[in-house]
TrEMBL record:
InterPro entries: ACAD10_11_N, AGP_Transferase, Aminoglycoside_PTrfase, Kinase-like_dom_sf
Transmembrane regions: none
Organism: Mycobacterium dioxanotrophicus
Residue span, Aminoglycoside phosphotransferase domain: 23-240
CDD domains: ACAD10_11_N-like
Gene3D superfamilies listed in its UniProt record: 3.90.1200.10, Phosphorylase Kinase, domain 1 (3.30.200.20)
Protein name as it appears in the record: Acyl-CoA dehydrogenase
Length: 318
């Protein structure tokens, strides 16, 4: 449980003396827990979790959020963040609470043929704003996802023929590198807050920046478009279940995003799908080896075959 007195103390430099009310843990968050609370009636969010070698530190995540905000992207306002474990027991980040819906299936059911493409355009514009942000001087590391996910799979000591074929194809067909930008790293339905309080659905905020890094813009674009993140929507709505990939890319470029070559995007879509497959295999491994015994993790492992099917479908056109 979070010590409310300690929580008030870390907020004091920003807000002065405050009273903490209504502290409650929210659902979701695989690597870090999320808590909602009020500081003298101001609704806030606390994200907290142990440090690791995979996710950005809380101070780095906060710096990336502030740079994205300066570029105009819809992100929560950060009050304070620290990598120290001393005040609250683990590194933490505190930001403003933003009302809205994050569950992708609920969002999909609430959209119609007018609001769906409008929201797609807002997502594309937000991503263009993120990619225009200044990524220098805050400690972000440039990442090569192909190398990273090859290493992740090798460390598990297990693979599949489809995964190996995909890696070989990716290595042999890698497009020319593009200008490095600030990459969100997990831009997808489920990490977005959508506000339905007005007549038209509105993208209220882009959340969960723990995988942020410096990389290529197509990394974020492709991740939004893999089949897993359209949650059963037809292939005509391949971009997050909201619209076509062509419409998504067009809106991204209209919003000031970097030019996107479709063959290059296809390469990144193969990599993004492979990445999801490796993640599914990793989640199962956590269960299998006893690190985190969980029926949910075991079930996620069964989705490896889904990603193999998706990879074979994508590679069929090459």
């Amino acid at each position: 449980m979070i010590d409310t007195a300690a929580l008030a103390a870390v907020l004091a430099p920003e807000l002065g003396a405050v009273t903490i009310d209504g502290l409650r843990e929210l659902t979701g968050g695989a690597s870090r827990s999320t808590w909602a609370f009020a500081a003298d009636s101001r609704p806030l969010i606390l994200r907290i979790g142990p440090p690791d070698d995979v996710h950005a530190g809380m101070e780095l995540e906060a710096a990336a959020l502030r740079r994205a905000a300066a570029a105009g992207a819809p992100v929560p306002h950060v009050l304070t963040a620290s990598n120290s474990v001393e005040p609250l027991g683990n590194p933490y980040l505190i930001c403003d609470f933003i009302d809205g819906e994050t569950i992708a299936r609920k969002i999909a059911r609430a959209l119609d043929d007018t609001s769906r493409p409008a929201l797609l355009g807002q997502c594309a514009h937000a991503l263009a704003q993120i990619h225009r942000a200044d990524a220098h001087g805050i400690g972000l590391v440039e990442s090569d996802p192909l190398t990273d996910w090859r290493r992740e799979l090798d460390q598990m000591g297990d693979t599949t023929a489809t995964f190996e074929w995909a890696f070989r194809w990716l290595e042999r067909n890698r497009p020319a590198r593009t200008r490095p930008v600030l990459v969100h790293g997990d831009f997808r339905m489920g990490n977005l807050i959508v506000d339905f309080s007005s007549e038209t659905a509105r993208l209220a905020a882009v959340l969960d920046w723990e995988l942020t890094h410096v990389g290529e813009a197509a990394d974020d674009l492709a991740w939004f478009c893999i089949r897993a993140w359209r949650f059963g929507a037809p292939k005509e709505l391949a971009a997050g279940g909201l619209g076509s990939i062509d419409d998504f890319v067009s809106a991204y470029q209209a919003g000031g995003g970097v030019p996107v070559d479709r063959d290059t995007l296809h390469w990144w879509l193969v990599l993004a799908t492979l990445r999801w497959g490796v993640i599914c295999r990793y989640q199962y491994e956590r269960h299998r080896c006893g690190q985190t015994r969980s029926v949910e993790l075991a079930a996620i492992g069964r989705r490896v075959c889904e990603t193999e099917y998706d990879l074979l479908t994508l590679l069929e056109r090459t």
